[in-house]
Amino acid sequence: MATESPAGESPSRGKRADAQRNRRTVLAAAAEVFVTSGVDAPIRQIAAQAGVGMATIYRHFPTRADLVTAVYRHQIEECAEAGPNLLAGADSPFDALRQWIDLFVDFLVTKHGLADALQSDSDRFAALHTYFLDRLLPVCAQLLDAAVEADDIRPGTQPYELMRGIGNLCIGRDNDPRYDPRRLIALLLQGLQRPHAS
After folding, report:
1. Contact, 144 vs 162, CB < 8 A?
2. Residue 181 clears pLDDT 80, i.e. is over it
3. C-alpha–C-alpha distance, residues 45 and 39, integer Å
4. What secondary structure letter does DSSP report for 178?
5. In which residue ranges does the UniProt entry place its DNA-binding region annotation (predicted)?
6. Rounded to a whole number, what is the largest CA-CA distance in the chain?
7. Which candidate, 38, 43, 47, 114, places its Cα nearest to that of 74?
8. pLDDT for position 6
9. What is the pLDDT of residues 89-108, one digit of tens each?
10. Could you tell me how far CA 141 lies from the centroid of its own chain?
């Protein structure tokens, strides 16, 4: 019979929870390090950022490709899960759309940090683009539909074209400090809004 921990969890369940927590911590730390230092940053830098030993990273992610893929998937999931939560909590569907696009831009900044690795010939990386579209297009569509239904924006904007346009606006941010894609994205969203009579 398994002994119970004081919290009522079996020791193996407690270890699994710790492992999941460590994994999430490593992914968040790796995402930050990849943005500032690139995907070739030393594993010890990621371990230090996460506050874990290097062995913990290698236990979860035996290769750098495993880590890069996991970071990308984790960020897709965070972005996907944020959509319905924002829609439920924002003042209006348009505010939810604007907040989600802000998160999407944050994600794209990290994605640009991963670009070199993602352009490799690995099937694992090739599959990520499909995963990206499968998870995020429906969320963007839900937000657009809600904003149209609330009469916040004009109908007719396709989720793919909006996401692609935002992605294109983010290109060049890294090598030109005078360029702020968020300002242009704000203008794009302003153009989508339906003018309301005062």
Report:
1. yes
2. yes
3. 11
4. T
5. 42-61
6. 70
7. 114
8. 46
9. 999 999 999 999 999 988 88
10. 17
